[in-house]
Amino acid sequence: METTPNNRSKREREKLQAIAGNGLLDRRAFLRGGAAMAGAMMGYTFVGSAAAEPLADDAWSKAPGNIVPAYGAPSRFEKNVVRTLSNPNSEPRTSHARTPHHLLNGTITPNGLHFTISHAGNPDIDPDKHRLVIHGLVKRPLVFTLDALGRYPMVSRMTFVECGGNSAPFFSKEPIQASVQALHGLASCAEWTGIRLSTLLEETGVDPKAKWLIAEGADAPALSRSVPITKALDDAMIALYQNGERLMPGNGYPMRLLLPGWEGNMNVKFLRRIKLVEQPAMSYYEARTYAPILPGGKAYQFYFLQEVKSFITHPSPGMMLKEPGFYEISGVAYSGNGRISKVMVSADRGQSWAQAALQEPVHSKAFTRFRVPWRWDGGPGVLQSRAWDEAGNVQPTRAQIVAARGETTKVPPVTGFPSQHYNGITTWAIERNGEVKHVYA
Amino acid sequence: MFTRKPLIFAALLALGSSAAFAQGPNLGKPIDPAELAAWDISILPDGTGLPAGSGTSAQGAPIYAQKCAMCHGPEGKGGANAAVVGGAPIKDMESVKTIANFWPYATTLFDYIRRAMPWQQPRSLTNDEVYALTAYILALNKLTGENDTMDAKTLPKVKMPNRDGFIIRFPDKI
Known about the structure:
heterodimer; A: Sulfite Oxidase, Chain A, domain 2; 8 helices; disordered N terminus; B: mainly alpha; two-stranded antiparallel sheet; 6 helices
């Protein structure tokens, strides 16, 4: 009896019933399509008036189209899909360009929209003259041209890069009303291709006294960071390609150090020198900048890891839900400790949770897209996501982070960095008029 | 899963013979220290890497006025960019980090000035000028005496007030 078509469609209908508060549906409801899908769409497609207009054969369909360019660019109708700039006139300070998560989907950040932070502009490096030197506590110091590196065995991997200061507005004592781009835009994900650093260290040889390396860029401030040798020999890469093409200048052209899952600033761009040493250099960025202060006045040093985190991109602040009915809640989850194992979503301020579908394949230390079907009833709602990683780490609540790390006493500017390494839960409120607001739970 | 394998691997690399080198592409060119001297500006907190040369606060003051004050203000008091003198004790995330209240090592000051300053012309200062600016800023902060000379021997010995103000976040990753 269980397998009769009638019973099956009844079961599928049941999946479209809420499995958590405020209209969250079973994540499997749409995976098989068919009857369940049709049923779900019914109430939605009849709403609104667009279908009442007769369909026109528009002008663009009745003449040959535009020239095909040598390097493609998005449709002119997508011109608002851009990064936001903290320093558009290139004043003598750091420049940030933030990823518009709310205008993207999937897990790959297009190269032109990958976040970048440049501490003194992007150098205009001639790749033929660029060199990578590996020296210090090695048996044979070596210098490599880009041409030479291009002949080495390469690997590709998906990985996110996230600034240690991403999501800093969440340290504000009050929620700052801003887009997910402004709040979480200093994280992006790409497929990176390059040479394992261990392959090159095999050729230089490593003196057993070497415990760290100092990586240095060819940019104006010769930005340098110290990296434990264990990470260098684990999964560090000299990245030459980003989503199939050469690195963007803002992401380190012609090469960068890639340390999957670790603080963005350590993924040294424009990489020109690696020196193996016995102790960390205590460079400006590790001794001062990326050392978040704790309540009482001590500060964390060598934070390194970008811990398990998730946030909802659809819907998110700035969007309007036009009418009650079906929507897909989706977002990204990632962890510097490995794969995302689970994401739970709540629509009722955390009183009940529905497990989200994870887009396969789930890559280690990479963006993982999660999705939950949702039927909005037009009433107020409070959306949250919470991620788990394969190492067993759970994304903390904001209250847990504030208890350990503190919060501001004044509301800082949204582009400010009161502290770093916020990986707590993000909360969006849905108002009756369909507006999405940033709130604290 | 993290620590054990790389350590064994490191040991193998350390033992690497010339036979091991021959197996890889081997497309790097050997380079000797003289050839990379212009790039090798790394300094460690114990003073390793500090160059020859020296400077005093008195020598640093006019260099500061000419090349630094436009951004960091007269006598280090701050301008378009951060003050390099003073700073209330660090209490919480809203405390402003300064050289005197936060930086754990004086070597970082020499290193950062030499590699990144002045903003528009990094790596244009001589080592003597960098020592002199370092001496000037440390003396303004009363971390050294007015007449102290900064060089490769004296600079690493400067005790910074917040040296012990740090907690390593993930010791198992080091």
